[in-house]
Design brief:
mainly alpha, binds 4-amino-5-hydroxymethyl-2-methylpyrimidine, globular, Heme Oxygenase, Chain A
Length: 212
């Protein structure tokens, strides 16, 4: 299980689309496709994060969880505004977007995770993994030696910046705390959910890259 996780995590954060941004060879039509599709994704991600917030308010024994998740929701507010301005800069229409299969599948997966019977530990693990993949992927495009095109720097900064990294570590801490106390049944569900997130992330990059 651990080997599989590690392999998939590397696959999700070092996927060819990300590597093409990092080495400057990225096809801008791929980037635009990603932009339009990710906006649609984020509009489903917001209610998912809201559902995690509700679970935190009911289940959590640590008062700080709510603040961290609420901070995440606040940054999604900025993110939606950013998508709108970025889309107009790139001439990507945001209404009537044809939602690609991989995106539909990912959105359906999130919908299922919003159900009240899904344990807080499982939902927060998914939430952390979803954010962490973007953080690690885009931070990789900002490292020394990367040749990320200047017009994509802003996108990479959005998720690759140190503050976002700190926020991901806060989510990870919450998830770890919940998992330490979880039953083996919940632990298994969280592991499976984590792997599913990675698979959906890989599919999402593949779709953007035009290989799906
Ligand atoms: C597909 N995964 C996808 N889109 C995002 N915006 C994030 C993760 C991080 O918020």
């Amino acid at each position: 299980m651990w080997a599989k996780k590690h392999l998939l995590y590397t696959g999700a954060t070092r996927q060819p689309f990300i590597l093409s941004i990092r080495d400057g060879s990225v096809d801008l039509s791929s980037f635009k496709r990603w932009l339009g599709q990710d906006y649609v994704f984020v509009r489903e991600f917001v209610p998912f994060v809201a559902s995690v917030l509700i679970k935190a308010s009911k289940k959590s024994d640590d008062g700080n969880d709510m603040e961290v998740i609420l901070g995440g929701l606040a940054s999604l507010n900025d993110e939606i505004a950013w998508f709108k301005s970025e889309a107009s800069k790139w001439d990507v229409p945001l209404s009537n977007t044809v939602v690609h299969k991989a995106n539909q599948n990912y959105r359906r997966f999130l919908e299922n995770l919003m159900l009240p019977e899904v344990d807080y530990a499982v939902a927060i693990t998914a939430f952390w993994a979803i954010e962490a993949v973007y953080q690690e992927s885009f931070a990789h495009c900002l490292e020394d030696g990367s040749k990320t095109p200047s017009e994509l720097q802003d996108t990479c900064q959005r998720w690759g910046n140190e503050g976002f990294g700190e926020y991901c570590r806060s989510l990870q801490k919450i998830a770890n705390r919940c998992l330490e106390k979880a039953s083996s049944d919940v632990l298994t569900k969280a592991e499976v959910t984590f792997l599913r997130v990675l698979e959906h992330e890989v599919e999402f990059w593949n779709m953007s890259h035009g290989c799906a």
